[in-house]
């Protein structure tokens, strides 16, 4: 019976996957990240951001000009010392986007093929065992064309894990199945993670999927790793305006540091905003980009007008009101400039407040949520 | 019925198949997978025997097989024999004339295999050779069968090239097609008819068996 890969306890960092890949072209790469055993790191970014290239480089299917890849105490790639391990020598499990199952082999034989490290006599039983763990009992003799999308994905996962890999690479594994199957498979992956203690890399362009499944998210653009962090911190404190935009964040603005009654404030249009962290290190008159998560925008009730004593009160006109089921997306426009503030509220709250396009509303921009972005070029 | 001619024809067809299939596998796979400068030129050269009149191809082969031509001289230095009017000569000519029939079906079959299947095999621990034998070859098998059928049938029926290079030496270069032509020239329509029926039967059986084999294996790339 096969053991789950990497189940035995190891010294901290022993099973870690560290990746550092650099090349100017033809596919530019400037990627540095690591993934701990048992951790699921999602690589997110738009199409062409180099996610799949990175995965292929880790698997040994693409050879970058410069870089180093270490996994489980082994060096898979070290261009400085001429070390390049072939894919066969890397012990990596890969689930390809379209699963890449061998169409002429049954599910059992697909998995068996990855069991070259076992004695030939024990391979069939082991393959059936893996298929059983993926809840594919009784389907061992079926060919890939006789399986549903979700079943194929599980066969691909069984084949990837059967090799007892040191790292598991998943290349958009949920993109080829319908929404219902996707949710089920995502749930199964989350459950599976509790049993495998190897680094898992998930390439996806679906942010919701990354947030739901990943311990950390690494944002990629143009082959560069821009930021890697836990989802909560990443979404509240993006390292740059670029990261915020890649994470589909709105509410990125530009303001100026000013001193009001001896205290540093952020001037934005006619308002002098309080900021919980970061202003003290900036000098007055300095221009600064800032970001506010839409969860930190609080709508004031229109039947109880504030007298201005609330936190960072800001008044704007509703430029857009889009009802999306239970949530309503509001976009506020301001007299002082073209910047717009977008946030979601419950649809019943929008109705109760009688919100409509063109209406004036007051919101609070929570001081703790205002995140000052490092000086970067706004693209 | 000219059994000697039938035997020459079958021997020629079998040997052509035997020698061309490995070439077809290598060339077909290379043309399907590799990206290199001059690939279109290579493909055009492979396809050339398809569009050339057989007599023209035969003429050029006959000229290059002569002892005063570089290839003919090279062959002579290697084997001590000439190529024109010999079985070796018509075999070489058949190899050239049937090249597209062997390469193209195999190339199409390789092109139909998604590239990441081989990559998945490597990531499962299979060496490039194991990947070829256990993944690629079974998947291109219908293409190989088609190539076999086409090469076999085409070689059996080849006339112009064989006649130009080999003439009609009994037991050496006189194939069944040429024997039929000779019978017609001698106004022996019955003899020509029997041999034609034999050639038709052999061709039909070959294609039938081969397509029967190939038809059972059509993989859907799921």
Can you walk me through this structure?
- The complex is a heterodimer of chains A (379) and B (222).
- In chain A, 21% of the residues lie in helices and 32% in strands.
- By secondary structure, chain A is an alpha+beta fold.
- A six-stranded mixed β-sheet of chain A has the order 7-8-9-3-10-11, with helices on both faces. Chain A has a five-stranded antiparallel β-sheet with strand order 2-1-4-5-6, with no helix packed on it. In chain A, strands 14-13-12-15-21 form a five-stranded antiparallel β-sheet.
- In chain A, a hairpin with a 2-residue loop joins strand 17 (313-324) and strand 18 (327-334).
- Chain A is elongated.
- Chain B has 222 residues and is an all-alpha fold.
- Chain B has ten helices and no strands.
- The N and C termini of chain B lie far apart (51 Å).
- Classes of the chains: A alpha+beta (379), B mainly alpha (222).
- The A-B interface holds A 59-61, 86-88, 90-94, 96, 98-104, 113-114, 116-117, 143-145, 147, 152, 159-160, 163 and B 114, 116-117, 119-127, 134-135, 138-139, 217, 219-222.
- Chain B: Its main location: membrane.
- Chain B: Keywords: Cell inner membrane, Cell membrane, Membrane, Molybdenum, Transmembrane, Transmembrane helix, Transport.
- Chain B: This is Molybdenum transport system permease.
In short:
The complex is a heterodimer of chains A (379) and B (222). Chain A has 379 residues and is α+β, with helices and mostly antiparallel strands.
């Amino acid at each position: 019976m096969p053991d789950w890969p990497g189940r035995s306890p190891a010294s901290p960092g022993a099973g870690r996957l560290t990746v550092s890949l650099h090349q100017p072209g033809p596919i530019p790469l400037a990627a540095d990240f690591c993934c701990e055993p048992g951790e699921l790191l999602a690589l997110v970014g738009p199409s062409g951001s180099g996610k799949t290239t990175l995965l292929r480089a880790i698997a040994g299917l693409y050879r970058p000009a410069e870089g180093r890849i270490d996994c489980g105490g082994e060096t898979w790639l070290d261009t400085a010392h001429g070390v390049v391990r072939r894919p066969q020598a890397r012990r990596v499990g890969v689930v390809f986007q379209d699963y890449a199952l061998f169409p002429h082999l049954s599910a059992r034989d697909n998995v068996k093929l990855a069991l070259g490290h076992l004695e030939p006599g024990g391979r069939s039983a082991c393959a059936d065992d893996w298929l059983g763990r993926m809840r594919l009992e009784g389907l061992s003799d079926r060919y890939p064309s006789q399986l549903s999308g979700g079943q194929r994905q599980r066969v691909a996962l069984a084949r990837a894990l059967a090799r007892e890999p040191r790292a598991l690479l998943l290349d958009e594994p949920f993109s080829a199945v319908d929404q219902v199957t996707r949710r089920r498979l995502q749930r199964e992956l989350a459950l599976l993670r509790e049993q495998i203690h190897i680094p898992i890399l998930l390439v996806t362009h679906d942010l919701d999927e990354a947030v739901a499944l990943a311990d950390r998210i690494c944002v990629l653009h143009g082959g560069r790793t821009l930021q890697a962090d836990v989802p909560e911190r990443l979404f509240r404190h993006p390292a740059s305006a670029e990261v915020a935009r890649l994470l589909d964040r709105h509410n990125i603005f530009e303001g100026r540091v000013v001193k009001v009654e001896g205290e540093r404030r952020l001037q934005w249009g006619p308002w002098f905003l309080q900021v919980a962290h970061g202003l003290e290190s900036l000098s007055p008159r300095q221009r600064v980009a800032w970001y506010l998560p839409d969860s930190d925008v609080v709508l004031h009730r229109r039947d109880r007008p504030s007298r201005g004593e609330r936190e960072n009160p800001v008044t704007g006109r509703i430029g857009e009101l889009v009802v999306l089921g239970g949530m309503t997306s509001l976009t506020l426009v301001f007299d002082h400039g073209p910047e717009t503030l977008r946030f979601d509220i419950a649809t019943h709250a929008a109705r109760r407040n009688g919100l409509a396009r063109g209406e004036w509303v007051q919101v609070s921009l929570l001081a703790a949520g205002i995140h000052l972005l490092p000086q970067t070029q706004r693209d | 019925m000219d059994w000697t001619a039938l035997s020459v024809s079958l021997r020629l067809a079998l040997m052509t198949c035997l020698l061309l299939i490995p070439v077809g596998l290598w060339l077909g796979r290379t043309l399907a997978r590799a990206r290199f400068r001059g690939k279109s030129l290579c493909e055009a050269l492979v396809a050339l025997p398809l569009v050339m009149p057989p007599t023209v191809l035969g003429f050029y082969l006959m000229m290059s097989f002569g002892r005063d031509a570089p290839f003919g001289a090279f062959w002579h230095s290697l084997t001590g024999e000439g190529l024109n009017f010999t079985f070796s000569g018509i075999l070489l000519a058949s190899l050239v004339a049937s090249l597209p029939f062997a390469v193209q079906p195999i190339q199409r079959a390789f092109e139909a295999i998604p590239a990441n299947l081989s990559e998945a095999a490597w990531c499962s621990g299979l060496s490039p050779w194991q990947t070829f034998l256990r993944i690629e070859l079974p998947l291109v098998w219908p293409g190989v069968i088609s190539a076999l059928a086409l090469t076999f049938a085409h070689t059996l029926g080849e006339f112009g090239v064989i006649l130009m290079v080999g003439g009609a030496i009994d037991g050496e270069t006189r194939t069944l097609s040429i024997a039929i032509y000779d019978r017609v020239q001698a106004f022996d329509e019955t003899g020509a008819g029997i041999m034609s029926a034999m050639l038709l039967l052999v061709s039909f059986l070959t294609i039938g068996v081969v397509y029967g084999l190939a038809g059972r294996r059509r993989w859907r790339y799921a």
